[in-house]
Amino acid sequence: MAIALAQVDPSALGLLSEVLAELAANGTRVALLSPDRALLEKLVADAVVVRNRDADGRVDSLWVTALWRRLRSGSTAGLLISGDVSFAAGCRDVVQQLQLAKLVWIDPLGGLGQPGGERLSYVDLAELGKIMASMERERESSERVALLREFQAMVSGGLPAVNVCSLEGLSQELFTYAGSGTLFTRERYTTVRRLSLDEFDAANHLVQRGVEEGYLAPRTQDEIDEVLTHAFGVFIEGRYLAGIGALIPSRDGSAVEVASLYTLTRFLGEGVGAHLMRFALEWASELGVDYAFACTTSDRVVAFFERHGFRLVGQEEVLAEKWRAYSPQRLSAVQCLRREVG
What we know:
Blueprint: E1 2-5, H1 13-25, E2 30-34, H2 37-44, E3 48-52, H3 63-73, E4 76-82, H4 87-98, E5 103-106, E6 122-124, H5 125-137, H6 142-156, E7 162-165, H7 170-175, E8 182-185, E9 190-194, H8 200-212, H9 221-229, E10 231-236, E11 240-249, E12 255-263, H10 272-287, E13 291-296, H11 299-307, E14 311-313, H12 328-331, E15 335-340
Parallel strand pairs: 1-2, 1-5, 2-4, 3-4, 5-7, 6-8, 12-13
Antiparallel strand pairs: 7-8, 9-10, 10-11, 11-12, 13-15, 14-15
């Protein structure tokens, strides 16, 4: 991935160094892009590669292999971009030539905001076009619009994602599910499928997060293993995990429990919950069970299930095995919902 450092407060470089150390520990290689050589040298010492246009606008292509060699010997390298029409245009050329997985653009303003001040955490190309048109009508900053046009060109040209955030929010943007800035992607198309083994780590993390936030019931390790075994997820553009759920069958095959439904904060409002529920009910039908049920202590979750055809029932109308070793404290507050499938 690349991190573009157009405007950076030198006093905040410690925050960036901490993020780079964590990325290195995760095996992620990072190219730091900047028009400021002194800034790059503060971060990576002599591991700086120069990409410069001559008077005729030509670029020496050997910078690509020079960067590759730097990243072979270390997880982070600097790339000095100079001589382009704009730094953003130079970054666009770099990410397209290198076919990177992600560009993170550090901006003191952070990501995009709505008129009311609420952050826009996720924007596709169609919405980005509308945002730029609105900004032009309102005669907002031409520099900001020009920057958004570069992001539009990057994503249209094949870059999977551009993240825009402040340096202070970089760690939250990269390492949390809520993010701190704005994620730009090509389209909003979604797919729902069973999780692969490689995705169990992320799903396990989401289940734990849901428990900590009080949305999901605490589970033993064996119960979490059962959730992961029967888990499925919603993916934006086939790559960004937006939410998870599980469909746990009963021992006698008569019912399934819809469990551990959780939507990432960044994708709230994208209909992720509806996609999860549709997949769960279709799967339950394929299994040939009599009914699906769910248990929750949240009135908001109850309303969600009722919108999808579930009805509130007594605890005796769901599987008796559900209540074995169940927390007495939670049992007194839990609400049960049921929907016939057969």
